[in-house]
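**Fold in tokens:**
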Amino acid sequence: MGQSTPNYLVERNLPLPTLLERATEKELCVLADLITDKGKGRLMLDKHVKELIILFQMRSKLYELSDTLAKEICAYGSHSTVNVIRHGQGAEYLAILKEVAKILGVKSKETTDVYSFERYVLAAIIHKAVNGKSNDVLYVELNCNDRQSNTLIVGSINNTSKNKRKPLVETILNVFDLKLVDKLVKRIITENYILLLCSGIGAVTKFGAPAGIMTSLTIAARLNPLMTAVSGVASAFSLSGPAYRIVIPAVVQIALIRYHQIASETQQFCKELESCL
């Protein structure tokens, strides 16, 4: 931990189906629950696909449905109702990822690889979790079991100011403390936060709804961000564009899955290297 591995030793940009095939059952259950609404089904989800996912989830064999899970996530991310209903591939994952990155406040980056965009997404979320907090608070919240990782993080806390924690975020990601990253990401990506994001996305206007609708929803969100106006926005998205309530947490979960796999491979490589010294 606390070390990086040359890019050529770890496959960072596995295709989505391959990535999901290597994921743990617990990780895949998060995606399955998003796709099926915890087994209740969704308007845009084929009944037979829902039943298939639930069946394999009960058997703890979701990895065998990696292609199906990937296709359904991409279908939810499609900008076209027709594409979603016909159960096609929908938008390609990279395009969906870029859209979610924008929504989460990631500035345009000159990169085309999936891994980099997913890392930007995780970094943006972790930044929200640590920025603005005092050193004393962060010493407690970012405490690691691994001594080397803890030393690096404490050093980064001391070398960054309260409202300029981006270098600290990079340190957190680089030490590969999976529990810490999970904790920080899940502290921010809550159901309420997703609803708040959906209430502020300009996609309703973008996809042709009257501007007055967006204005009304924005005013309502300012008065009470979790009032029924939010569900109105989400409903509009469900019919006219990407289902952001599903796509945003799904992309974040996929980013975590890839991060976990790369971290595990990196840590294993470091252990094998140390044993040879």
Summary: Residues 7-276 form one domain. The chain has a mean pLDDT of 81. The chain has 16 helices and no strands.
